């Protein structure tokens, strides 16, 4: 075997096949409506681009400190203070190449071979691969629609063993859009403290929240929970900067220092000019973010309303992020033109082939009774795509 055991265990993205097929159809001139987007369909605001141009012209094209430039760490520290009531100094912050990189650093730094990492499902697909890469074991807690896809304290307690090292929390969640409230997080924090378990809190969708629901960071309750939390965030989603690759993590300085050592010998610093742009994103005007959230809210309303009128489909109203996690359970076991649908992947395949609509099957997120639709696409795509889905569903028998 040429490929290492570690890497050969990584699963290829199950959505790639659907994306490749959708692209192939587009190349043939077929109008495919894509609901797969994991990024805002907005451009990075001009004032942020200008900051990058300025940095480029000023010759900021060299290596920076691995953990990030001082100006960006200051901006991150201010953001934590203002938004989350958290105080972090420069040696408690690590800037990385996207929140994904921050999460990778955190999991690899905390989890040893054989350790257990508790992961609520549905989950964002990369967590499970990162846990595997660390040689650790993912312990899945299955949540359901009735509980708003959130774990309950007794489920958490039941999942804990002597090998449990980490709980991964993601609020607002990809794929469900659900948000843990203060009381729920407080309960979880008490269990974590009592059992000496770390929390990796992925808060990348913090700024994409609707209806004034507050975002609470689990690390913010007291010093005890802060000491066992790594908070991950970034500029990708809030500022439409997915391509710039800037994410960050904050936590106890020993852990952040160790994560920084890991980064030192892999990527070193994130791109210098992208860091300058991120300073402007966090510290500059927030008007474009407000416009984007207002637009996502309108699209969310249209999507939720329409989905819940289609017989056989149902969705909760997502509180944050830009995804609807849609229940298709009643449609599995039905057939299209005599072809039986058994899995969410079958459903997504047929939907693409017969209705030219691309969606992400729930199996990718650990729940086969669902599909994920992103509303980071135009209103006209949403209207037409859902119309096509409705017609497709009507043809199932
Ligand atoms: C839950 C979640 N965490 C982290 C990330 C990664 O963000 P970034 O683009 O900053 O690496 C994503 C991106 O899709 C995500 O959905």
Task: Summarize the structure in short.
With 397 residues, the chain is an alpha/beta fold.
Task: Describe, in plain words, how this protein is organized in 3D.
With 397 residues, this protein is an alpha/beta fold. It folds into two domains: 5-43 and 288-394, Aspartate Aminotransferase, domain 1; 46-283, Type I PLP-dependent aspartate aminotransferase-like (Major domain) (Aspartate Aminotransferase, domain 2, 3-Layer(aba) Sandwich), CATH 3.40.640. It is 41% helix and 15% strand. It has helices spanning 5-8, 16-27, 46-57, 70-84, 99-110, 125-133, 153-159, 182-195, 223-227, 253-264, 272-283, 287-307, 344-355, 379-394, and strands at 33-34, 93-96, 116-121, 137-142, 164-170, 198-202, 229-234, 247-250, 314-315, 323-327, 335-336, 339-340, 357-358, 360-361, 370-374. The strands form four sheets. The protein has a seven-stranded mixed beta sheet, sandwiched between helices. It is globular, with a radius of gyration of 21 Å. The termini are far apart. The structure holds pyridoxal-5'-phosphate. The site of pyridoxal-5'-phosphate (PLP) has 13 residues, from helix 5.
